[in-house]
Amino acid sequence: MDPVEKNGVIDRWVKKHLVLYTGATRHPFILSIRDGTIDFSSFKRWLGQDYIFVREFVPFAASVLLKASKNSDDNSDMEVILSGLASLSDEISWFKQEAAKWDVPLSDVVVHKSNQNYCRFLESLMLPAVEYSVVFTALWAIETVYQESFSHCLEDGSKTPPELLEACKRWGSEGFGEFCRSLKKIVNRCLEKAPDEELKKAEVTFLHVLELEIEFWDMSHGGPK
Length: 225
Ligand SMILES: Cc1ncc(CNC=O)c(N)n1
Known about the structure:
The protein is mainly α. It is built from eleven helices and no strands. The site of N-[(4-amino-2-methylpyrimidin-5-yl)methyl]formamide has 10 residues, from helix 5, helix 8 and helix 11.
């Protein structure tokens, strides 16, 4: 086995699509948090939209859990996803608390087009016919973009405003990093065994997540709409 093969499919894809990957994980929105120049109205816009996204993400994660219980050849997959679902329960409470702190009325957030597109994409992945390896690739990518983005705002030398540290720690912490590494191991295992056509589908799904994440950041970063 050559060293590239040994690293697994995911590392190969990240290398192959590094420009898009970096576009999602080092977006100007994130860089503005890290260098302290962020406009708080952008953060508030992100907060309201992401609360809506996360509420849609819960049934998606649950659909992956369901597929794990039926298709997985490793019964620890289910435990990993279940722990993710448990954190989402915490996360929803956090969003509500944070929104109150920032005076963002969650009940009347108007869903932005980019968010709607992303949620529609999640819905398409919830269909029973979509393969386990494909949905797991999406789950890994969605979580990892946030992990890589927010951990960047906690690194030495970052000037993240203290008001935003808690948000950054939610996804940038070591615990969430460990969770993402567990997801990556599972995806690599699934993809190693996937037939070529399924592998191609998973790669396209990965790229689609990156594009949707970039559009999500764009929406937060841009002017009021
Ligand atoms: C747009 C987007 N992508 C990924 C995440 C992280 N997953 C769950 O919280 C998120 N909250 N929002």
